[in-house]
Amino acid sequence: MRQIQGAPGARVLAFGGYQPANVVTNEHLAKTMDTSDEWIRSRVGIVERRIAGPEESEVDLAVQAGGKALAASGLSASDIDLVIVATCTLETQIPNAASRVAHRLGIDAPGAFDVNAACAGFCYALSAAADAIRGGSATHVLVVAAEKLSQWVDWTDRTTAVIFGDGAGAAVVGPSDTPGIGPVAWGSVGEKADAIKVKDRNSFLQQEGQAVFRWATTALHPVARRACERAGVRPEDLAAFVPHQANLRIIEAIARKLGAEKAVIAKDIVLSGNTSAASIPLALSRMIERGEVPSGGLALLLGFGAGLTYAGQVIEIP
Amino acid sequence: MALTEQEILAGLGKIINEITGIPAAEVTPEKSFVDDLDIDSLSMVEIAVAAQDEFGVEIPDDQLKNLKTVKDVINFIQS
User: Fold this and answer.
1) What are the residue boundaries of the structural domains of chain A, listed by start?
2) Are strands A298-305 and A240-243 parallel, antiparallel or unpaired?
């Protein structure tokens, strides 16, 4: 038997993002539940979010974002030999989303698997993509994070209904002579598994808000620092910090403790809501589109959420 | 090493200022977090965590909800 080697490194060639057209404002939510625009803005930081209708599935969202990333990369569908979809909100599990997304994008016979690490899913999937390229398992990988949280949310529960949104973000990953995706820093806290969960097939998403807030604002900045360390960079070197868009106050608390003074901090949640795994690639794709971050600069990605799971890595911005 | 009320109050003032922007001078024992200082439960969690680092006393979430005034927190830390 023999082993093969892949490329010395991997990098993100392009990002793409997509959210449904339907905008749901705080005022709209305040009509059907006991909440207010002011409460939502101060507590979570969200002004509006996007919600998909019944005709748009999480796979549809993935196809849109994946197609945009593919187009931006300059590659064609035939160049992709692995598709990974990060999602925890599939309506059905069988068949997986990746095979369907690949087929609809005209990608012929790639490897195809889904990753479920909730809001850390994109960082986990990106790490797997980079390892596949360096290990010789793939040459070009399409990583898509797609979530339709609206189909898992109790729309009468003001503690969750105001937070979540639908969307997808994607990255095309390719080989590189120099490191473009740093080593991942990941982990999990299984003893807190009950903090964010869907109990059974007939239940909705529920979370212990205060416990999750405490965990997120204390346990994650050391992970962020570890991801920087493993990539051989300092927080001061970062041009961007893109944490999972869970809650604006969590984002600000982690950013404050990380001390990445020169980094632009992603705050996409304000107009997008919390889109679980999609939030990181969605935020970064927009920051790039709007010219807010320099190509070639370093971005720290940090996903965290249900599991509880977390993963982060430094990448070079395409 | 027992801390005096003044020492704890000064420490809390600094913490609350860092987390909420409220001037430390406004943090006085009789003030209520919610009604007087306009500090919500999420900020209380951040304050509790910072207080744990500063004073070495853990304030779990289920105890936190009973601490309504600055004095309540000072008493909790001293006990």
Assistant:
1) 9-176, 185-316
2) parallel
Distance CA A232, CA A49 (A): 36
pTM attached to this predicted model: 0.96
Q: Do residues A111 and A54 touch, judged by C-beta distance below 8 A?
A: no
pLDDT in tens, chain A (318 residues): 999 999 999 999 999 999 999 999 999 999 999 999 999 999 999 999 999 999 999 999 999 999 999 999 999 999 999 999 999 999 999 999 999 999 999 999 999 999 999 999 999 999 999 999 999 999 999 999 999 999 999 999 999 999 999 999 999 999 999 999 999 999 999 999 999 999 998 899 999 999 999 999 999 999 999 999 999 999 999 999 999 999 999 999 999 999 999 999 999 999 999 999 999 999 999 999 999 999 999 999 999 999 999 999 999 999
ipTM: 0.87
Does A185-316 carry CATH code 3.40.47.10? yes
Which of A223, A262, A267 shows the shortest CA–CA distance to A239?
A: A262
CA distances from B59 to A114, A121, A194, B43, B44 (A): 40, 32, 21, 13, 10
User: Among candidates A271, A303, A287, A278, which has minimal Cα distance to A61?
Assistant: A278
Structural domains of chain B, ranges and CATH numbers in brackets:
5-78 (1.10.1200.10)
Active site residue B61: no
| Residues of A annotated as catalytic (active site), given as ranges | 119, 244, 274
CATH class of this structure's domain A9-176: alpha beta
- Residue A103: enclosing H or E segment and its boundaries? helix A97-104
Q: How far off is chain A from B21, nearest CA to CA, in Å? A: 13
Alpha-carbon distance values, A166 to A49, A55, A127, A238, A271 (Å): 8, 13, 23, 28, 12
Which residue among B40, B46, B48 places its CB closest to the CB of A43?
B40
Check CB contact under 8 Å for B45 and A42: no
